[in-house]
Amino acid sequence: MTTEVKPSPRERLLEAAATLTYRDGVGIGVEALCKAAGVSKRSMYQLFESKDDLLAASLERRTSAYAAALLPAADDGRSPRERILHVFEQVESQSLKPEFYGCPFLAAQIELKDRSHPASRVARGVKANLTAFFRAEAERGGAGDPELLARQLSMVFDGASARAGIGADELTGLVAPTVITLLDAAGMR
Amino acid sequence: MTTEVKPSPRERLLEAAATLTYRDGVGIGVEALCKAAGVSKRSMYQLFESKDDLLAASLERRTSAYAAALLPAADDGRSPRERILHVFEQVESQSLKPEFYGCPFLAAQIELKDRSHPASRVARGVKANLTAFFRAEAERGGAGDPELLARQLSMVFDGASARAGIGADELTGLVAPTVITLLDAAGMR
Q: Do the beta carbons of residue B158 and residue B106 sit within 8 Å?
């Protein structure tokens, strides 16, 4: 027998903030967030200093699920090239879902504009980790210029998820050939 | 002697909307827009049906300046390859300005989320024109798959301007080598 534990007000706020800002943007009001979470504004301000802090914490909370959904398992025995392609296969597959609006960490930074916003900082860190993954695999795979390849792959990743997120393009038949061309040009094994 | 003509309330609203939404996002309030334009709310609503219409009109108004800043002159005698690279040189140069926040037409779509928003429609049309430019040059330049190359270049364009706009990367030494690799792989003259 399992006992269902109702999520705490804090968890409900984090979940509501993640879902609603992703769907509607960071401009979503505190009223709407509290309503969706079933938490009073008073309670919200007891749990979080400000809406900005709530946004930052909600992005922070998504970080490990995001990495797990995109990155291959450590030491999965595949080549660096295959491990990089895995990331793009995941984005391609995520982009097929109707509720896909692109990478939440890119969108948050574009929407917030302010680079010193606590949520921008969280998002920037997450994206820097992805670039670091690409760089490490590029090094392992013998890329001629691992740093350049990592930056190129990050740029393609963001362009791909942005365009799929706004419905400007579909990633099938687009992102894989692009990545393969870049991996080949870099001399990746 | 030149006579200085004060811009009309309509022009001032369009200018304020373009500047403020680019800097602060589409969530900017009607009050702030009117204040920046020096126009009463009453006048604003006499000139525009809604803030949404004002946003759409302000993006529409930027369209020709945007195209002129990015695209090479028709029949400038350069090769399709050089004409494509010109676009990316322009973005690279724009991205060096401190007030660069990426492509305004990409940002508007990401921020608005709603694909049927009048401003999203304007933005989508502008970006489709850029892809069409890439496709026409790809065809003229003998690309193996002009449609694929046009989509790849659009994806790199959006990834590059998004990343530079949020300060995640600089485009120097990144965007040109990437585009050249894709042009070479497509067999572009």
A: yes
